[in-house]
Design goal:
The chain has a domain at 132-284: 7 Propeller (Methylamine Dehydrogenase, Chain H). The protein is built from no helices and 29 strands. The strands form seven sheets. Strands 24, 25, 26, 27 and 28 form a five-stranded antiparallel β-sheet that branches. The two termini are 17 Å apart. It is globular, with a radius of gyration of 18 Å. It is an all-beta fold.
């Protein structure tokens, strides 16, 4: 087999039911096979990201108080070695992203923590914490601030963060050696609960999955601002559990996961000229598909089914976007995040 067939797969889990923390596998992105490689003990590493260099894995511990941490893990030789843990100074971090220079965590307690990375990415220093806000009308789900996701824009100049409880997306400028608030990138409909955001491969468009409304919103992106193009239903049963969102590597298809009822992944075709979406299918999954990811070659979609203790491996039809269960599940206790290297 060639080196391109086998890639590294990392799983983040909740550790309240026996999981050790972060798990590493080899994954064959031509056949869907997997081989366990080891684990690293980290409390509740519910979200992970790999550095642009591929040398480090960054993880959060989704807990409150002083135990809410960012972990820097060396993965250069296929073994995981913890090199640093840094407090987020905010409780319940639930998302992490990096551009290689900055590292940001989105904290369900209502803020975004920003860390400056050393050259090479082996050390992190807290550089600031930015608060989210209120504004949404739902007294149960939007009564306290939540920042659910923060991503680096492809232009290299901005960070966009979903302000869940205020039904809007915030913008931050990467300004030399600091990050500064840049206002509101977009306002979404009330009681949307914006959750996860992703960009098209060309950086011209962004797509938002909202948790409460269960809708996917398409935007045109330019210089830190989002212009509404379309809103289309992903959750057809009103379960109020919209979760994750990803585009295929070629940008032709978009996928969004829905939880709580009718658990599964909605499938959309993307118009290449306009970026608009067409609903083309729905793939049922195991219970609580909180996060999923697509292999770099686009051939497989792996879905973390938290409440069934397994990762489902779906083959992806690259011509029509449809998914087929390969029944090559990866067993894991309370899996919630899938990342590739």
């Amino acid at each position: 087999m060639t080196s391109r067939e086998w890639i590294s797969l990392y799983l983040g889990t909740y550790t309240d039911q026996g999981s050790n923390g972060i798990y590493a596998f080899r994954f064959n992105q031509l056949t869907g096979e997997s081989q366990a490689m080891g684990s690293l003990a980290v409390p509740h590493p519910s979200f992970l990201t790999v550095s642009p260099s591929g040398r480090f894995l960054y993880a959060i511990s989704e807990v409150s108080g002083r135990d809410a941490l960012v972990h820097l893990v060396d993965i250069c030789d296929q073994h995981m070695r913890l090199v640093q843990s840094v407090p987020t100074e905010a409780g319940d971090p639930c998302y992490i992203a990096t551009d290689g220079r900055w590292l940001v965590t989105s904290n369900y307690s209502g803020s975004m923590s920003v860390f400056a990375l050393s050259e090479g990415g082996s050390r992190a220093r807290l550089a600031g914490v930015f608060a989210g806000s209120l504004g949404g009308p739902d007294p149960m789900r939007q009564s306290v601030p939540h920042v659910h996701c923060a991503v680096f824009a492809p232009d290299g100049k901005h960070i966009l963060a979903t302000d869940f409880s205020a039904d809007r997306i915030l913008c931050y400028h990467l300004d030399g050696d600091k990050v500064v608030a840049g206002g509101i990138a977009a306002v979404v409909e009330h009681v949307s609960g914006p959750r996860h955001l992703t960009f098209s491969p060309d950086g011209r468009r962004a797509y938002l999955m909202s948790e409460l409304s269960g809708w996917v919103t398409a935007f045109a992106y330019h210089d830190g601002r989002l212009e509404l193009l379309q809103a289309i239903e992903s959750d057809h049963v009103g379960a109020r559990g919209g979760a994750d969102i990803h585009l295929s590597p070629d940008g032709r298809f978009l996928y969004s996961s829905n939880r709580l009822r009718n658990d599964g992944i909605a499938i959309f075709a993307v118009d290449a000229s306009t970026g608009l979406l067409t609903d083309i299918g729905y793939q049922p999954t195991g219970r609580h598909p909180r996060h999923f990811n697509i292999t770099p070659n686009g051939k497989f979609l792996l879905c973390a089914c938290r409440d069934e203790d397994r990762i489902q491996v779906f083959a992806r039809n690259e011509a029509n976007g449809q998914l087929t269960d390969t029944h090559q599940d990866i067993a894991a206790s309370r899996p919630v995040c899938v990342q590739f290297k």
